[in-house]
Design a protein that fits this description.
It comes from Actinomadura macrotermitis. This is Secreted protein. This protein has a single domain, classed as 3-Layer(aba) Sandwich (Rossmann fold), CATH 3.40.50. Helices cover 32% and strands 17% of the residues. The protein has a 4-stranded parallel β-sheet. Strand 5, helix 5 and strand 6 form a beta-alpha-beta unit. Helix 1 packs parallel to helix 6.
């Protein structure tokens, strides 16, 4: 089956959409020549690495940033280079598919039935990931995109991993 996974979204999770609580720092990033202003917390890396180590899990990006997260996000939050779910650009709402459904399809395929925790802010992602064929045991930790990732989210994931017996 393979080790469990901790999957990370960037925007709305590690980069809240409003000025966040204490501990975040402002950064400018320019993937593909487009400049973004981000709020990132350098303490998130340690929290996530500790979670993964305790659970015997691998951490991976599950974000439209894909591999760009390794250059622009990882060093600013204290994470090493990570594997990533290859999520192609969203082609728009087609045939009733929403943004969460689009990401969920790619996440489910990439995880290959492994158990995972996914830190995500898309409101429909929970329902969408559960509907994907072959998806393994999982917990989608819904993060408020205005607040971003908190210790409360990490604790919820740790409790879930502990319940899996890992």
């Amino acid at each position: 089956m393979g080790s469990p996974l901790v999957l990370l979204d960037v925007d709305g999770v590690l980069n809240p959409f409003e000025r966040p609580h204490r501990g975040f720092q402002r950064h400018r990033c320019s993937p593909n020549g487009v400049t973004y202003k981000l709020w990132l917390n350098p303490g998130h890396g340690r929290l996530l690495l500790d979670l993964a180590e305790a659970a015997g899990a691998e951490i991976a990006w599950a974000s439209y940033w894909c591999d760009s997260a390794n250059e622009w996000i990882a060093p600013r939050v204290g994470l090493p280079e990570l594997p990533f779910v290859p999520i192609p650009g969203f082609p728009g709402i087609e045939q009733g598919r929403t943004l969460g459904a689009w990401k969920a399809r790619h996440v489910a395929a990439w995880t290959g039935g492994r158990p995972f925790v996914w830190f995500e802010d898309e409101p429909d992602a929970t329902e969408c990931i559960a509907a994907e064929p072959g998806v393994g045991e999982h917990l989608l930790v819904a993060v408020d995109p205005l607040e971003g990732l908190t210790e409360r989210h990490i604790e919820r994931a740790a409790d879930w991993f502990a319940a899996l017996g890992r």
